[in-house]
Design brief:
The complex is a heterodimer. Chain A is an alpha/beta fold. Chain A folds into two domains: 297 residues, Rossmann fold, CATH 3.40.50.300; 280 residues, no CATH class. Chain A has 17 helices and 13 strands. In chain A, the strands form three sheets. Chain A has a nine-stranded mixed sheet, sandwiched between helices. In chain A, strand 11, helix 8 and strand 12 form a beta-alpha-beta unit. In chain A, helix 13 runs antiparallel to helix 17 and helix 14 runs parallel beside helix 17. Among the domains of chain B are: 88 residues, no CATH class; 81 residues, no CATH class. Chain B is 57% helix and 12% strand. In chain B, the strands form two sheets. A nine-stranded mixed sheet of chain B has the order 4-3-7-2-8-1-9-10-11, with helices on both faces. Chain B has a two-stranded antiparallel ribbon with strand order 5-6. Classes of the chains: A alpha/beta, B alpha/beta. Bound molecules: guanosine-5'-triphosphate (2 copies) and magnesium ion (2 copies). One guanosine-5'-triphosphate sits at the interface of chains A and B.
Chain lengths: 607, 486
């Protein structure tokens, strides 16, 4: 089958729109396709109120099809098509079209008696709320030749949205803008024509009621000029429906020529003949241009990042990854600080704690040996000291372990944001502390002087000797011999006292020795334990540090990986966009060539 | 002047005195007050506004009865132009700095023309024309450039409507945009308390229905229909259809014009029909009509194709003299009706319109006065607006027009009349069809008073209706007092 080349371009446009996920555009392209394949020419008449739109249609048909007059305003759009006998149909809901242009919901249609057309079009027909438009069927040659005429209600303010809705409803191939020649083009009419010319290949300005105006030639010229000033050059055709209908009544061809309608009809007929070729090409070119414009717009500008995009684009993902890397870097500095600070604190706290405990023990030792004799209580004392020291060490160690837990958790907190719960800190399995008990030597009994009996005897003898001598000499004066009972008694007394004094001094010395020895022992113990403690803390610090360094590295790797992937995706996206832009450019070129190709050479073969 | 309007006038003057005392030190305020006071003495200022090219200047010309407007400046632009009665035709130009100078003028077929060299590139903001015309004795007309002029030469039309006493809104048809324009013109306490001083003129009435012979008749029906539309009635006191070209032609019809029309009317019917089919045919160089093409073209220019059709038909069917034809054209054009409406709505209500303008001016002034003075003055303005019965009548009439308050049957019409909707003269209010003596008027008024007292106490009526009835009673009382005085 020979298919026109514009169909290829149109299908390509639809394919690209689909590729871009623009179902709305696909739909409008499909609609255009159906419309362009329909050989009938759809002509819509728009304009401000009372510009003679309805009468223009009557003039074209040479018959009073549409109600006209000052009491009769067009309220419902009216589609005039060919029919063998006159019919009037009120259509309620416009059919909902599915993707392939077929109607899903059939419109609700009510056939009306022909004489009710005025009421129907004027929206004055009772009992039909929500009527959407009216269809009139007439047996006219013009309609039979494949022209569909669509009358519309006048638009007070020619609002672009309303206008688009109207022309979309009409699926118009040609838009006739009716304007009363008796009043010059209003600014809103000019902007309307400009707007329509952007979306329609054929826009014609029809200046109506020229029979009433002696100045219509001037106004026509002026209208052309004012439109050209905004860069629009539509065909401007001045007509008079009044003269046309009069000519029909009297069969007067001069009047008919004066009415300007032959020109307008000739124009419509050419366009109808050219519909599937030149007109279609122009229409497709225009549609493709607008579609390309719409497809290219989002490609040119990445949506601003602040917008809550449901699926972030690759570029924004890339930015996101970069941000995460920075953040991780900051996090790694932070957790190291935390660990170091906490460990230093822990160390000083532990040392203080240990010192405090041992000091308490020493104070106790002092108290005890102020009274007790190390000779008699040594055994119990040694045992007590050992126990107390071990207990202190135990408590200190336990506290350390607790603090460890806390520190581990505190460091882990930095990684919460990365999805690592704070109990992932490495478990500390305490190494056996037996070495400690082994290494702490049992306190040796210090060497203490004992007071032996021999010593006692000699000491007593030494003391008694003095007593005998003194009292002996004193009593010798009384003529007594040196050794006499008195001196002997005094000697015994003196000897006993000396022994007692000597034994007391010895006890004091023993106590001092033991105290000093305990002090030494405790110091040794402290040194040993604190060294062990410090080792352990350092070990732990290393453990935590290694763990979290590894974790950080792993995280960093992940992020860098995702960064790399984001970058790749972004690059791919840019590439894809370039590709899409290129495709659009190709299509654009096709559309341009389509519009430029001379008639007759556009038929190509299609499978 | 009735007693109540006299009271209103006095009250306004007194308020002005108060404002004067408040703002004596402020030079600008004093000048403003001076201006306001001066305006109180002048005729009603009637501003003609509307979309571009809607026929505003033609309305002005029709009312004055001469082809004067528009007076374009040397660069082709129109400015606000004021027309007042005066012994000599005279045009004075005013510039933004307040300077005024007289301009030399010549008459042309298209109206008064100034020497373009004297007005080019001059900062003229306003023209004042004095013209000897009876119609200008009670009103001053203000012609304005179109409101939707898109050429960047925005004349301060809002300013003009703001300080005019009344407005003629000239438009070819009434669209929603027109109503919006009218709506936005109503702002400020005064505008809400004393609503609508606007009459809508449907111009180009002769083009209705494609310029058929019954166009003006159709247009009149259309105007009446519009007037019954509450959305439109809320914005204006009346809608008048007006065939500007026909009216002006009627007022300026010369003997030569009449001779030409009569000659065409005397031609065979078929020739006439064929030649009047379109403007082109009528103005064509060669045609079977027994009138010179130039004359025909002039006729067409002045009357429009519908005017020509109408005039020839009238000449054929009985208007045998120039005067008869002119009178008939004026009657049919709607000019007579327009004059009547202007008289009833504006000239007769001169005092209240003037008071309204003065109060609006005082309201603006209050906005400028500092501190407590401004507040005080504003409060006094609002008090006067709320208490003066004349304004209450206006508000009630507006409410009845827009359908907010409605009486069933004849009561509605009577209330409208008694409130002064048709005119404020006692006889008009009472609907007297012929001359009545003072005693008869008194009796009629007493009857009406009694009736409306009953309405005011009628438990079947709604609150709004009873309030409205009370206002009508108050109007009747006012009439009785005036009749007693007179
Ligand atoms: N047929 C017909 N033409 C009219 C009527 N009134 C005015 N015109 C024409 O309409 C045109 C504009 O009339 P103006 O009166 O100048 O209108 P305007 O509103 O003052 O115009 P601007 O001041 O330019 O906004 C002129 O060509 C008039 O001849 C009318 O009632 N009937
Ligand atoms: N003389 C003359 N009158 C015309 C011509 N075309 C329309 N009219 C008159 O202009 C008036 C309005 O015409 P319509 O066709 O109803 O205008 P419309 O634009 O359809 O009006 P709405 O549907 O109300 O917007 C009618 O009275 C027509 O008779 C014309 O070519 N010549
Ligand atoms: Mg219509
Ligand atoms: Mg003007």
């Amino acid at each position: 089958m020979i298919a026109p080349i514009w169909l290829d371009v149109l299908d390509e446009t639809a394919r690209l729109s689909a590729a871009h996920g623009r179902t709305d555009l696909v739909e409008s392209v499909q609609q255009k396709r159906t419309q362009l394949l329909d050989p009938r020419l759809r002509v819509v008449v728009v304009g401000e109120p009372k510009q003679g739109k309805s009468q223009l249609i009557n003039g074209l048909l040479n018959a009073p099809a549409c109600p006209v007059g000052d009491e009769l305003t067009t309220v419902l759009p009216t589609i005039v098509t060919h029919a063998d006998t006159p019919t009037v149909t009120l259509v309620h809901t416009p059919p909902v079209r599915n993707r392939h242009g077929g109607a899903i919901a059939e419109a609700d249609r009510t056939a009306l008696p022909v004489d009710q057309v005025a009421a129907a079009v004027g929206g004055k027909l009772g009992g039909h709320p929500g009527a959407a438009h009216v269809e009139i069927g007439l047996p006219r040659a013009l309609l039979g030749s494949g022209i569909v005429l669509i009358d519309t209600p006048g638009l007070d303010v020619l609002d672009p949205a309303q206008l688009d809705a109207l022309t979309a409803f009409a699926r118009a191939d040609i838009v006739l803008v009716a304007s009363d020649v008796n009043s010059e083009l209003s600014p809103s009419e000019i902007s309307t024509i400009g707007h329509l010319a952007q979306s329609h290949a054929r826009v014609v300005l029809v200046l109506t009621k020229i029979d009433m105006s002696p100045r219509w030639r001037d106004v026509t010229e002026q209208s052309r000029r004012r439109l050209a000033a905004i860069g629009v050059r539509p065909a401007v055709i001045p007509v008079s429906a009044d003269l046309r209908l009069r000519a029909a009544g009297s069969n007067d061809s001069t009047v008919n020529a004066e009415s300007g309608f032959p020109t307008l009809l000739a124009r419509l007929n050419t366009d109808r003949a050219a519909k599937t070729d030149e007109l279609a090409r122009a229409a497709v070119g225009q549609l493709t241009r607008t579609v390309i414009e719409q497809l290219a717009a989002p490609l040119r500008t990445e949506p601003p990042e602040a917008e809550p995009a449901p699926a972030p684009g690759p570029i924004s993902r890339l930015h996101e990854a970069q941000r995460t890397v920075d953040e991780l870097r900051r996090c790694s500095v932070r957790w190291q600080h935390t660990l170091n600070d906490e460990m230093a604190d822990l160390l000083s706290d532990l040392e203080y704690d240990l010192r405090d405990r041992t000091r308490k023990i020493l104070r106790k030792v002092d108290e005890v040996f102020d009274k007790a004799d190390p000779l008699s209580d040594w055994h119990t004392f040694a045992q007590w000291l050992d126990e107390n020291l071990l207990e202190a060490d135990e408590a200190n160690h336990g506290w350390m372990l607790q603090r460890f837990d806390v520190i581990g958790r505190r460091v882990a907190e930095h990684f919460l944001a990365y999805g690592y719960p704070d109990d992932t800190a490495p478990r500390w399995s305490p190494t056996s502390r037996d070495h400690l008990t082994e290494n702490v030597p049992l306190m040796e009994q210090p060497h203490v002087e004992r007071f032996t009996y021999a010593q006692k005897f000699f000491t007593g003898l030494r003391g008694s000797y003095g007593g005998i001598l003194i009292f002996g000499l004193a009593t010798s004066l009384a003529g007594m011999p040196l050794i006499n009972p008195v001196s002997l008694g005094a000697g015994a007394l003196f000897g006993g006292k000396t022994v007692l004094d000597e034994s007391r001094a010895l006890l004091k010395r023993r106590q001092a020795t033991v105290k000093a020895a305990s002090q030494r022992h405790v110091d040794d113990f402290f040194l040993l334990v604190s060294k062990d403690c410090r080792d352990m803390v350092r070990q732990l610090q290393r453990l935590l540090r290694d763990h979290y360094t590894a974790l950080t590295e792993q995280l960093q790797q992940q992020i860098v990986e995702s960064l790399r992937r984001a970058k790749l995706a972004a690059d791919a996206d840019v590439a894809e966009r370039d590709q899409q832009m290129r495709q659009l450019a190709v299509l654009q070129e096709q559309a341009r060539r389509l519009a430029a190709t001379p008639t007759g050479t556009t038929a190509g073969t299609r499978a | 002047m009735s007693r109540s309007t006299r009271t209103l006038d006095d009250a306004v003057r007194q308020l002005m005195q108060e404002a004067w005392n408040l703002s004596r030190e402020d030079g600008r305020a004093a000048a403003q007050l001076d201006h306001l006071y001066g305006r109180l003495q002048e005729p009603v200022h009637l501003a003609v506004v509307g979309p571009a090219r809607s026929g505003k200047s033609t309305v002005v010309n029709g009312l004055i009865g001469d082809q004067i407007a528009p007076l374009p400046l040397g660069d082709g632009h129109d400015v606000v132009t004021r027309y007042a009665d005066g012994p000599q035709p005279r045009v004075t130009a005013r510039t933004a700095d307040g300077a005024a100078r007289e301009l030399a003028t010549t008459r042309s077929a298209h109206g008064l023309r100034m020497d373009p060299r004297t007005t080019r590139r001059s900062a003229i903001t306003e023209l004042r024309v004095t013209w000897p015309a009876r119609s200008l004795r009670h009103i001053n007309l203000v012609d304005t450039p179109g409101t939707d002029a898109d050429d960047g030469h925005h004349a301060p039309v809002e300013h003009v409507t703001g300080e005019a006493d009344a407005i003629l809104y000239a438009s070819q048809e009434i669209r929603t945009t027109d109503l919006q324009t009218l709506q936005t013109a109503q702002h400020g306490a005064v505008a809400t308390a004393a609503p609508v001083n606007t009459v809508i003129v449907l111009t180009h009435a002769d083009e209705i229905g494609g310029g058929r012979i019954d166009a003006l008749l159709t247009a009149r029906q259309l105007a009446r229909r519009h007037q019954r539309d509450p959305a439109i009635a809320a914005m204006c006191t009346g809608v008048v259809a007006y065939g500007g070209l026909v009216a002006l032609a009627g007022r300026t019809l010369s003997d030569a014009d009449f001779t030409a029309v009569a000659a065409i009317a005397a031609a065979p019917r078929e020739t006439q029909d064929a030649c009047l089919m379109s403007a082109d045919r009528f103005a064509g160089d060669d045609g079977p009509l027994p009138v010179d093409p130039d004359v025909r073209r002039r006729l067409l220019h002045r009357l429009g194709i519908h005017g020509v059709r109408l005039a020839t038909t009238l000449a054929r069917t009985g208007c045998a003299t120039r005067a008869e034809l002119a009178a008939e054209l004026i009657r049919r054009s709607g000019l007579a009706e327009l004059r009547e409406v202007i008289n009833g709505c504006f000239v007769e209500r001169r005092t209240i319109l003037k008071a309204r303008t003065a109060l609006a001016g005082l309201e603006r002034l209050a906005g400028r006065l500092p501190g407590q003075d401004g507040v005080h003055l504003r409060a006094r303005v609002e008090q006067l607006l709320a208490t003066a019965h004349d304004f209450r009548e206006l508000r009630l009439l507006a409410a009845m027009r827009s359908g907010q308050v409605a009486f069933t049957g004849d009561a509605g019409t009577e209330a409208h009349r008694l409130l002064g909707g048709n005119g404020t003269d006692a006889a008009v209010r009472l609907g007297a069809e012929h001359e009545l003596s003072g005693g008869e008027l008194w009796d009629l008024t007493a009857d009406a008073l009694h009736r409306w007292q009953q309405h005011a106490e009628d438990p079947r009526l709604g609150l709004h209706q009873r309030r409205a009835a009370t206002a009508v009673v108050r109007s009747c009382e006012g009439m009785l007092v005036a009749l007693g005085d007179g």
